[in-house]
Amino acid sequence: MFDSIPSSLEHIQLRALAVTAATRSEALPGVSTVAETVPGYETSGWFGIGAPKSTSIEIVNKLNREINAGLASATMQTRLSDLGATPHIASPAQYAAFVAAETEKWAKAVKFSGAKVE
User: Fold this and answer.
1) Rounded to whole angstroms, how far apart are CA atoms 78 and 33?
2) Nearest to 4 by CA among 100, 93, 85, 112
3) Which residue among 2, 5, 64, 72 has the highest number of C-beta atoms inside a 10 angstrom radius?
4) Helix, strand, coil fractions of the chain, as percent rounded to 5
5) Burial of residue 24 (number of CB atoms within 10 Å: 0-12, 13-18, 19+)
6) Percent of the chain scoring above 90 in pLDDT
7) Model's pTM, two decimal places?
8) What's the pLDDT at 3?
9) pLDDT of 1 over the 90 cut
10) In whole angstroms, what is the distance from residue 7 CA to residue 11 CA?
11) What per-residue confidence (pLDDT) applies to 14?
12) Is position 72 within any domain?
């Protein structure tokens, strides 16, 4: 099964074969990455927050500041760590670049697979 660490952590602490992220998980430090056996392999689940394209830059920046402050708080850091999640604090531009890179990566995977919309 391929699953995210937060939703499977309590079930896999007995025996996990590997994590699919680029680096080892702080929640499972003794579990290797797939990339340690298959160089270049990386896939991770992630969650993000977006806003309509017409949202003013002032509102986007305020949301970004407040969300990042929440993610950086000790309480949130502890809770996310307990769940096996790692927050990534980023600027709106960094997040946009990340989403663009993920879109490109998965578009290549879908094209390579030959999958078609039915």
Assistant:
1) 23
2) 85
3) 5
4) 50, 0, 50
5) middle
6) 69
7) 0.76
8) 77
9) no
10) 9
11) 63
12) no
